[in-house]
Specification:
The chain is α+β, with helices and mostly antiparallel strands and 830 residues long. Helix content is 39%, strand content 12%. It has a five-stranded mixed beta sheet with strand order 3-2-10-5-8, with no helix packed on it. Strands 4-9-6-7 form a four-stranded antiparallel beta sheet, with no helix packed on it. The chain is flat.
């Protein structure tokens, strides 16, 4: 199997390389010959295979072949045909899902293009491309601060959102530097430098309330003025989030569990959680109001014998630190008091969760909502964080990283300043520094000392200057001949180390990478391969999941997804988080187990906990903790059947075969359809209440030949996923109408249901592998791919096939490619 081999592109490869194969046997065809050949063969090929998308109306790919109906006009634009040849070489035309063109026709077209390029002198040359000096994006900034100074803060959360290009937010051409962002950089540098030298962590004399966290009161509640302290809504009553702890110390986490349980025990689910049959009955029992200690005491005591105890548990970073058993039907007026846990924590961000583990096993979590006023029956009302207690007197980690002379605080010698700067500046700039750069920073230390500041204050000023330097904020690669566009050269070992670390970790190189660069050994094949393996095994490689995969798969849209609660009442904030967690664990496993990237399509496993398993209709999984689950015998496999993907590719009220088909074409097959013309009518929502009526509308829509070009490969894929509703739950019918999940692609491939659809997509695994290669190469380079990148992509595809499509093979081939290891100057266009 070859990348993109399902489209016959084993055509005239020598034309691409040398252009010696000429038209109709002529050694040197003239312009007239080329124009006539276009009229005789190429024009008809375009009309039959290309004009439906590349016309004056759609201009797919910003290309309009209607301009070249005449051969004389066609031969005047060799630059256009160079790009066309690159797309044909890439196997991208015709797009996946459309019928493949006749191999002889393709060969005739490529021969014509090769002859035209040879005759015109317009020939693509080996070109590694050029990456614009890239500003660190928000994630890279936070990670670099963490790894450079060890300061446990995330200052970039307050920065403006980064722009995206080519699907990613690390593209140099769009990462501009606005005046507002510069102000944010200045403020962040000031605060970070304070914390780094140990001057920013003010420890109160007495422990104090640091924060109070409360969950949303309902799924539809908008965050209030203090939205940073408003946590996600959980039908199961959990309260979870994270908090930044200022210093190493003990802290108390105090939370209040609330039990609004009914007094009934009619069986089913967890006893005491059944909704009352009649709201008036609930009111009569006093559930709709707070009971006083005098009311119905006898009834309460009787109910205690019928209702089982329920545990509430607090965890910090996944470790249980406190629990409490609530007996009987304790009401809010019969509280046992706050549950308190004192925990010793390091400075920085820590995750907490207060929850009712037993509720994770509810088949229907909505039974934890009272029918009277939709208030949750069991929930955690709030969580307070109090402290610090017994704070550590030792300097923070950042202090030890900066003050490398080993002196005690307040006892530093002035000569130590040079050692500090010479240690810190190369790491901040990610390259060796000159003596003049060192002297400028030392001048700031000296200036602070002259103004009466302490030694630590002088170092703080130098750190502040480092953090606003363009050499820190930008990844700058130096050109040997910047004004010569043809001058390509290998980037330095230090630049290669930065490319590698920001690709795999979204952060700066560590000491081992710096050492290999300093010794000029990083390019040695064995050394580079060992570094790749080491970095993929490191926990920091999770950046590939959080940054690369989240953007490739459009998972960041899940945060903004708002399914209609009247149709999907169990779809709360927590369920979205569980879906995100499933996909994240799945992707991490694919990386760390070095599995074939083709398993993204049909991996027979995933990660589920009790609530998500029940949402999927998979039995045998209980509890809040995620566990690896075999999907054998289920209706799920790979990414396409995960709730996160199915939710982001749906509307809030219903599924959309168009959206799901488009998602697959764009993210799996790399053939995103063009946007619809402005005059295309939208579907009538009132008629789209069922899958049957929606399918009928789309079939009528595809009856228009202009619409069918894009919808024929798109809609059938979406219908193959119709058994999953708009939030990823399995269904056999929609509004009482059986689901029709059959489909036929334009190339004749037919399927019935998601399993057969995935099998069809797996036959195009070479197309998927190529698309993933292009996506990851774009992310790794920080620029969009151009026609001159096609040979490198082809080479990567060939090599990863030979390597069994292993994830590490894909990463290794990208790192060893010429675009990754080389660059050219910026004096014009190639």
């Amino acid at each position: 199997m070859r990348c993109a081999s399902w489209i016959p592109i084993a055509f005239a490869a020598v034309v691409w390389l040398s252009g010696t194969e000429s038209l109709r046997g002529q050694a040197n065809p003239s312009g007239d010959d080329l124009a006539n050949a276009f009229q005789n063969r190429v024009g008809s090929f375009l009309s039959n295979n290309c004009l439906a998308c590349h016309n004056a109306k759609l201009k797919t790919g910003n290309l309009n072949f209607e301009l070249y109906r005449d051969g004389a006009a066609a031969v005047q634009h060799p630059e256009v045909w160079s790009k066309v040849l690159a797309m044909l070489n890439a196997g991208k035309m015709p797009p996946p899902g459309l019928p493949a063109a006749n191999p002889e026709d393709i060969k005739a077209v490529t021969n014509w293009i090769g002859s035209l390029l040879e005759d015109s002198g317009f020939r693509p040359v080996a070109d590694p491309g050029r990456v614009t000096a890239r500003r660190l994006n928000r994630l890279e900034y936070n990670n670099t601060i963490r790894d450079l100074l060890g300061v446990p803060v995330q200052p970039a959360e307050d920065f403006p959102t980064d722009d995206s290009g080519y699907g990613f937010d690390n593209i140099g051409d769009v990462l501009s530097l606005s005046p507002l962002l510069m102000e944010k950089y200045m403020a962040a540098a000031k605060e970070i430098s304070r914390l780094a030298v140990g001057a920013g962590a003010e420890i109160p004399e007495e422990p104090t309330l640091l924060a109070r966290y409360m969950a949303k009161r309902s799924a539809g509640q908008a965050p209030g003025a203090h939205d940073s302290l408003v946590l996600p809504y959980s039908i199961r009553g959990a309260l979870y989030g994270s908090h930044f702890f200022p210093v190493d110390a003990e802290y108390e986490l105090r939370f209040r569990p609330v039990n609004y349980r009914t007094l009934t025990n009619s069986g089913g689910g967890i006893a005491g959680l059944e909704p009352p049959a009649d709201p008036r009955d609930a009111r009569r029992r006093g559930i709709a109001r707070r009971l006083t200690q005098e009311e119905d005491r006898e009834g309460i005591e009787q109910a205690r014998d019928k209702l089982p105890p329920v545990d509430v548990v607090l965890t910090v970073d996944g470790k249980r630190v406190a629990s409490r058993t609530l007996e009987g039907i304790d009401n809010v007026d019969y509280q046992l008091g706050d549950v308190v846990a004192r925990v010793r924590l390091t400075a920085g961000e820590h995750q907490f969760r207060a929850s009712w583990p037993e509720l994770a096993n509810l088949d229907d979590p909505t039974v934890n909502i009272r029918s009277v006023d939709e208030r949750r029956k069991l929930f955690v009302d709030y969580l307070d964080i109090v402290g610090p207690f017994n704070a550590s007197a030792a300097p923070p980690e950042s202090y030890r990283r900066i003050f490398v002379c080993g002196h005690a605080p307040g006892r530093h010698e002035d000569s130590c300043a040079r050692a500090i700067v010479k240690n810190l500046a190369p790491r901040a700039y990610r390259r060796p520094v000159s003596e003049s750069e060192v002297e400028r920073l030392l001048g700031l230390v000296k200036l602070a000392r002259q103004e009466g500041d302490s030694f630590e204050g002088g170092i703080r000023l130098a750190v502040q200057a480092l953090l606003v330097s363009p050499h820190f904020l930008f990844r700058i690669e130096r050109d040997a001949a910047p004004n010569d566009p043809a001058a390509s050269h290998e980037i330095s070992d230090y630049e290669l180390a930065s490319r590698l670390s920001y690709f795999l970790w979204a952060s700066m190189p560590d000491e081992e990478l710096f050492r290999a660069a300093q010794q000029r050994r990083l390019r040695l094949p064995a050394v580079l391969e060992a570094q790749i393996r080491r970095m993929l095994a490191d926990s920091r490689s999770k950046a590939l999941v959080d940054n690369f995969a989240a953007q490739w798969l459009q998972l960041r849209q899940l945060e903004r997804s708002t399914p209609d609660l009247s149709r999907f009442p169990a779809m709360d904030d927590e369920m979205r988080d569980l879906m995100r967690r499933e996909t994240s664990l799945f992707l991490e496993t694919m990386i760390h187990e070095d599995r074939s990237v083709l398993e993204f399509l049909d991996a027979p496993f995933t990660f589920l906990n009790g609530p998500l398993a029940r949402h999927y209709g998979i039995s045998g999984i209980d509890g809040e903790e995620f566990q690896r689950v075999s999907l054998a015998g289920t209706a799920r496999a790979g990414l396409l059947t995960q709730g996160s993907i199915l939710t982001v590719s749906s509307y809030p009220t219903r599924t959309s075969p168009v959206l799901r088909g488009k998602w697959v074409l764009e993210n799996i097959l790399g053939a995103a359809p063009p946007p619809p013309p402005d005059d295309v009518p939208v579907l009538e929502e009132s008629r789209a209440g069922t899958a049957a009526s929606l399918r009928q509308q789309l079939e009528q829509h595809r009856a228009d030949a202009a619409c069918a070009v894009c919808h024929d490969p798109m809609d059938p894929i979406g219908f193959g996923l119709e058994n999953y509703d708009a939030v990823g739950a399995w269904r056999n019918s929609d509004a009482g109408v059986p689901i029709d999940a059959t489909g036929t692609l334009p190339d004749g491939s037919s399927f019935d249901g998601p399993a057969e659809l995935i099998a069809v997509l797996k036959t195009r695994s070479d197309i998927f592998a190529r698309n993933l290669t292009e996506k990851m190469l774009t992310y790794a380079l920080g620029r969009g791919l151009e026609s001159y990148d096609a040979p490198a992509v082809e080479q990567i595809c060939r090599n990863i096939e030979a390597g069994g499509y292993r994830f590490s093979a894909l990463v290794s081939e990208i790192v060893n490619s010429k675009p990754f290891q080389m660059r050219r100057g910026d004096g014009g266009k190639t």
